[in-house]
Amino acid sequence: MGEKYTARYLCTVCKIYIYDEKKGDPETNLAARTTFNNIPGTWRCPICGATRDSLKLIASDELNQVHSQKEEFTLVKVRNNALEKLAGLCGVYKVCDGNPTGGGVRTGFDVMKMLALGANGVLIGRDMIRAAVGGGPEGIKLHFDYLRSDLKRGMVMTGCKSIDDINCRIFDK
What is the pTM of this model? Predict the structure, then answer.
């Protein structure tokens, strides 16, 4: 008998992450062959943090040959080798007191927190690599737009009119 059809779902928020039922996603603890209906309600997109409800079924003809090749490259080469090493480097390069800081930064709100704690720059590795491999230059642009939008929302919520206004006093509000 033929293999049962497995579906792929695109995150409609970041438009980068694709969940493949056949492969699962070990990074978010979803085993291979976990169907959409069996994804826990607490699950979040590893790129943008969107909920399971943000996933949209995509037809196989929507995925072109190039995207399929990128996805295979991601799973075999990047995820198994580079991401583990780069994730560790981001944590090691964690220095504050006005220096660039990295490690665990995934959203514009995280960027704002780092700046408020005294960093003059923020390093973002893992999510940018995912965006690049999953969507190429357009994926990187989309991820920067997502970070920028989060940062702007955080600034509005804390009354900061410019990046220079972000400091530790925002935590007192």
Answer: 0.44
